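Please check this.
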Amino acid sequence: MSYGLVIFAQIAQMFVLMAVGVLLFRTGRMGTAGAKDLGSLLLYVVIPVVIVRSLWTERSEETTAVIVETFFLSLALLVLAIVVSRLVFRRDGLLAFSAAFSNAGFVGIPLVQAALGEGAVIYIVCMIGWLNALQASVGVLMITGDGASVRPRAIATNPIIISFALGLALYAVGAPEPAFVGDVLATIAGLNTPAAMIVCGSYLAQARLRDFSESRGVWAVCGVRLVVVPLLTLLLLAVLPWGHGVVGLALLIAAAAPTGANVAIYAAQYDGDYKTAVLTVCTTTILSIISLPLLISLGAAAL
């Protein structure tokens, strides 16, 4: 089966899980508070465990080279996305945030696992770490326009950044992973896809059909997030001497993912346009069922 078909099949499964979230929210079985709690579980427990688990592996020259390579490549790709988004949305920081930062954790991880195998998550952990650091700094600056809003402590205490540092430390010292611990971590990591999609479904349940047709800015975000940034990412990966093969494909999947759910969290926290933030998450997620398989098929041929 081609990469594009694998991605399509995985996204289809994820949409079924999103439908569960919509149903739970619409029937009152899960409210806004419940969705927020589930999001906190993902942010503070599940995603950090996925990151630690992917880095807690046997040390080798090949793996070290991959970590170093993806560390710098991920930063370059995110800077590219930020610059492009800021150029397109000069007057709207929230839309720039939405276009710049993908859902590399909630969506990227299960897609990479489905297309390239569970061990391939290590190729995108650096991007997830950088993405969260840049959201908490550059992203906050985009939304607020005020440098004083950026809090270094919030960046340093971000659970995903902490888990990335912990995972690197475990890898560096070559710490053995006890079988029992590995089983527990695997069980927790397995919650990522269903929990994340149910949360996305709760966002979708809050949007009205009329909202989608009335928000031109959201459609512009879709074009930048799902088409422009991924194509430029693919072009950069193709011309650079690094990031080819499965490494480049994994990075492309993460970079081409829809808008990250964190935009809604940051919008609520910093008095941004929460409604528009939710719409960008929902619309890009829905349209990604078309864009992602096509882009990944193109990437598989080019990389």
In short: The mean pLDDT is 91. Residues 274-302 form the longest helix (29 residues). DSSP finds 15 helices and no strands in the chain. The chain has one domain: 3-302.
